[in-house]
């Protein structure tokens, strides 16, 4: 008994415990598993009882698989914030030293309101052990390589190697690129200089911005529905609105987050599964993209870090063209108000959504193809299109429109249309301080701004009946019949709307007659 009492207590790592559980799951008898791993039946029972804890820890990577104890950190929220930051840095293949981690920990602790936290060497060692992190010393040569290895050699290496392997099994129809951009959706021409270069990290400007996610394929034949992220979860202008030309989500910063991006990814994956398609999706490695869910029909390829300006098709002119078209919609609205001497009203989220979607669908397939060719992902001979004509957007008509509005609204002479278009190019769409804001404020739609903060109080618009909608179509036909050289496509689109409305109203009438008949019976 004395010898038994002096027996050293054996400890097992999470990895070892999971191997024991997996052995039982494979169909082996529990007694045989206990003998194989040299444990008692009671220890085996404990492992099986605690399996959900082990799986959660490994899945969330909050404890390294080699750890033998699951003790939490003293400053658990600091620990989680630093580890989330480390995962982002690691996903970008950036080497970090222990001193860098300690400095980041102090910075995050200060943001979380901890004044007494000390990122000591002992804390660093415990942090490494908790998460199974092996740090490597970074020599001067490594630093120089990281700083200088972001040029043409890196791009050429990617073109010659990784991208060829990625696209080998896919046609241009099945190769997609997704990217986000920020939009000051209420920006007026006369305020362009004030907005230029504004990163919009919060405050009042957050109410005036949206983040838009776009996705298209290399052949220009498919552009997916945009995802718009706003600040208000339930803006007043979307009350009783059940159909939009895009998907809409919200959080208090109007930023893209991991949860929102992953939710969008899962929806695309489900759609590809229903269509029995497999696609390659090329994305950058921003903080919202680096912890992806399990996908069945989407293979994700990451663009090299710090090279998206020359490798990401959406950044090479597709998103810019969308913004050109969106700003031109704004200019037309302003000009219409000026001509009718009406007061300028701020664009609300619903109007912005309609205009962003209209601009996105109006981007020409030839423009899309050329931007993919600029990225070097598809060959120049893939599509026969006129590069000069596709690159001519914005056209002279838009420039004339800008000139007219600029004079009427007293825009400074040094501001041009391109300044107006690119005024929100520097908006932050996601960043590592998401970690802090998510922990402090709960980064989800429930913490989004209220509708009262988001919009000025406007009278609620009366509901349009289907009979009124059909009457409006007839009035539009009557108006167009008095115009000269109306394209056939316009009449075709009008006929499509008319057909949809008539189908709705007749189906409603048929259903009501059947109901009336059943009630009389």
TrEMBL record:
InterPro entries: CenT-Element_Derived, DDE_SF_endonuclease_dom, Homeodomain-like_sf, HTH_CenpB_DNA-bd_dom, HTH_Psq. It is found in: Nucleus. Residues 30-50 bind DNA. Signal peptide: none annotated. Its main location: nucleus. Residues 66-137 form the HTH CENPB-type domain. It comes from Rhinopithecus bieti (Black snub-nosed monkey). One of its GO terms (cellular component) is nucleus. This is Tigger transposable element derived 6. The gene is TIGD6. Keywords: DNA-binding, Nucleus.
């Amino acid at each position: 008994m004395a010898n038994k009492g002096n027996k050293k207590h054996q400890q097992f790592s999470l990895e070892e415990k999971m191997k024991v559980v997996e052995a039982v799951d494979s169909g082996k008898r529990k007694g045989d598993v206990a003998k194989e791993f040299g444990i008692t039946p009671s220890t085996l029972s404990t492992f099986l009882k605690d399996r959900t804890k082990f799986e959660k820890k490994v899945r969330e990577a909050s404890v390294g698989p080699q750890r033998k104890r699951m003790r939490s950190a003293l400053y658990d929220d600091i620990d989680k914030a630093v580890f989330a930051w480390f995962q982002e840095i690691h996903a970008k293949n950036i080497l970090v030293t222990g001193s860098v981690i300690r400095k980041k920990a102090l910075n995050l602790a200060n943001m979380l309101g901890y004044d007494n936290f000390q990122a000591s060497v002992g804390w660093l060692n415990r942090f490494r052990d908790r998460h199974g992190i092996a740090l490597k010393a970074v020599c001067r040569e490594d630093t120089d390589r990281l700083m200088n290895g972001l040029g043409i050699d890196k791009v050429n290496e990617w073109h010659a190697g990784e991208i060829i392997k990625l696209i080998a099994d896919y046609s241009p129809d099945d190769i997609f690129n997704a990217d986000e951009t920020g939009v000051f959706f209420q920006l007026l021409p006369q305020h362009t200089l004030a907005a230029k270069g504004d990163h919009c990290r919060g405050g009042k400007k957050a109410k005036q911005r949206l983040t838009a996610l776009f996705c298209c394929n290399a052949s220009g034949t498919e552009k997916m529905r945009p995802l718009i992220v706003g600040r208000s979860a339930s803006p007043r202008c979307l009350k009783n609105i059940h159909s939009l030309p895009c998907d809409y989500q919200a959080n208090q910063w109007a930023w893209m987050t991991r949860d929102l991006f992953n939710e969008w990814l899962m929806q695309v994956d489900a759609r590809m599964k229903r269509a029995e398609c497999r696609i390659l999706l090329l994305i950058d490695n921003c903080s919202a993209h680096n912890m992806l869910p399990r996908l069945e029909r989407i293979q994700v390829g990451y663009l090299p870090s710090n090279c998206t300006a020359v490798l990401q098709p959406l950044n090479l002119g597709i998103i810019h063209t969308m913004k050109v078209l969106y700003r031109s919609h704004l200019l037309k609205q302003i000009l219409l108000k000026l001509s009718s001497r009406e007061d300028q009203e701020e664009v609300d989220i619903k109007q912005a959504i309609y205009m962003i979607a209209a601009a996105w669908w109006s981007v020409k397939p030839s423009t899309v193809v050329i931007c993919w060719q600029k990225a070097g992902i598809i060959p120049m001979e893939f599509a026969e299109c006129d590069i000069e004509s596709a690159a001519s957007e914005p056209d002279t008509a838009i420039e004339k429109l800008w000139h007219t509005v600029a004079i009427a609204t007293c825009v400074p002479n040094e501001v041009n249309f391109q300044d107006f278009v690119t005024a929100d190019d520097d908006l932050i769409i996601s960043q590592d301080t998401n970690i802090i804001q998510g922990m402090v404020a709960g980064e989800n739609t429930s913490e989004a701004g209220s509708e009262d903060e988001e919009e000025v109080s406007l009278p609620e618009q009366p509901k349009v009946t289907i009979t009124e909608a059909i009457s409006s179509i007839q009035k539009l036909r009557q108006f167009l019949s008095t115009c000269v050289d109306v394209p056939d496509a316009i009449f075709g689109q009008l006929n499509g709307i008319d057909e949809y409305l008539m189908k709705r109203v007749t189906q409603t009438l048929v259903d009501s007659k059947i109901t009336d008949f059943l009630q009389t019976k």
